Amino acid sequence: MITEDALLAKLHARTACLINFADHRFILDASGALVWPRHDMVVFSDLHFEKGSFLSQFANPLPRFDTAKTITNMQNVLQEYNPKQVICLGDSLHDGNALSRMNNRDLSDINDLVRGVNAWFWVLGNHDPEMPDAILGQSSEYYEIDNILWVHEPENLTRFANATAQVIGHFHPKLSVKKARHRMTGKCFVSTENILLMPAFGQYTGGLWVEDEAIQSLLQDPYQTHLLFNNKLYSTGIKA
């Protein structure tokens, strides 16, 4: 895991921040990754590998390099934090045929990432209800670690004996705020006492405004946002 000196440098540079969530300490990284030092773990969400090649089937002019760029961004995070475990919170593949369009180099690089840690967990999402055998790692609808449920879409916690909080992908939250007369817009983390929404990590992932009813109805409790903008993090005050 990242050294104390390296973490302090990131905190000072505002490329990471610390939060308390569900009685645990987490690192939010300006890349959009979540780090759980207690379990030597890095978490990504909504990678959407091969979204570019999917859209290009419908005459969309997006270049088809999104998977390679997302993998490079993941490599940079893993090199910096050197975790033993990784969780990906669903929609890692953009669609059921993504693997058939993925080039061999990208597939090899993904599997190299998986081999580089002790354990790699793929949470299944609505875009990828199953992971192909060609991609290494373990997959499941959810993972429960300590008192936290790790899911793609929100769950009713009464179904789970020990979970008191959940970390969720799926929503791709984004935010626009004005600071010092400058407008900043980007992806964001959103946290309440028992819910943490992850930003989408994939290169071609859009977003849903935090103010959207779909997100607001889920939050209910007072919440805090952590905006990703120009490779830095900006945490807002708690909103009731």
UniProtKB/TrEMBL annotation:
**What protein name is recorded for this chain?**
Ligase-associated DNA damage response endonuclease PdeM
What are the alphabetically sorted keywords of the record? Endonuclease, Hydrolase, Ligase, Nuclease
* The Calcineurin-like phosphoesterase domain, residue ranges: 42-155
Question: Top enzyme class of this protein?
Answer: hydrolase
| Keyword Membrane tagged | no
Q: Which GO terms describe its molecular function?
A: endonuclease activity; hydrolase activity; ligase activity
Q: Does the keyword Transcription apply?
A: no
Superkingdom of source: Bacteria
Task: Quote the gene name from the UniProt entry.
Answer: pdeM
Q: What is its EC number?
A: 3.1.-.-
